[in-house]
Amino acid sequence: MSTGTVSTGAAGTIARLNVFASTKRAKQCPTCKDRSVIVYDTHSGDEICSLCGQIIESRTMSEEQEWRSFSNDGGGGVEKSRVGGPNDTWLEDSVSGTTMMGGDKKFGRLAHAHDLATGTNSGDRQLKSAFSNLRFIGDHFGFRNNLLERCREIIKDLQTTGNLKSRTGVTNMLAVVYLAARDDADPLSLKQLTSFDRAITEKDIGKAVNKIKKLLPQNRTAGATTFASKELALRFAASLMLADCVRDLAAHMCVQSEMTKVIPVSSRPHILAGAAIFLACQLYVTQIAATDLAVTAQCGLQSLVEYYGHLLNAVKTILPKGFVPRNVGGINALVRPEHVLKRASAKPAAG
């Protein structure tokens, strides 16, 4: 488009401009005067006279409202159609954003004002601080994702019980890593963990480990009560308003999984319950997102998919006798764990 003219081209090939009437200020085209209607072209950022096509003013900032598809919230991935990153299921408000930490007293007041303005609650601030230190530790040692997910679960447990406030520092995060590695059947020594910061001794980490062990909920430790996952599966299915057939199948698979010990690592009932529900939903052709189940079970997506993989490998063992899958293709058509993660991290389609 050239200044003062509108290029229409051949009939039937007129380019459709994404424009709307500008209401910021009352303006007039110097050529058309009162007859003019000023519109805003969101593609080029120009304000244009709709009659003669003259560019009245060039702009660089869009006046459009941010487009948002609520159906894609929590789906992970980066959306070009909205401001900010994907939702964080670990936070209470499920929204990730800017965090201001450290600095002197003046900076602390600025951070406090920022939190008030953005509505960040104290629980989310504690989680963000703890996760930040955990990320540095993970980068230093090169930990696997499933170990880091277990660490986040322990941190979330501490936050839920109100015991995280004074335990977001590096020493306590090293203690969390120690406990998570032990649960993951791949223990780390205290001496190995001190290599992250030589100023922290084995004794310091050991004290933190003992304190955190006493603060963790009993049902998340290795001595969980028998068939606890069954009760959790029934509760999770009810909160998600799933059909009775899905609920009962998930509960049955939880019991069989605990009896046959299909999970090679120490069982965490809440993750087992979520994985069993995800498997049952597929067998009954019930649509549910793995990320929604992770939020309901209060666990990480990586851990949920890992447990789902174990159940999938033993699916013929844990299903009721004579059970007939409702999905097309039966057991052989169940989605693989790697595809679950791929779908969860895929970019949602804009529109």
UniProtKB/TrEMBL annotation:
Keywords: Metal-binding, Repeat, Transcription, Transcription regulation, Zinc, Zinc-finger. One of its GO terms (biological process) is transcription preinitiation complex assembly. It comes from Gregarina niphandrodes. This is General transcription factor TFIIB. GO terms for molecular function: TBP-class protein binding; translation initiation factor activity; zinc ion binding. The keyword Metal-binding applies. The keyword Transcription regulation applies. Residues 68-88 are annotated as: Disordered. Residues 25-57 form the TFIIB-type domain.
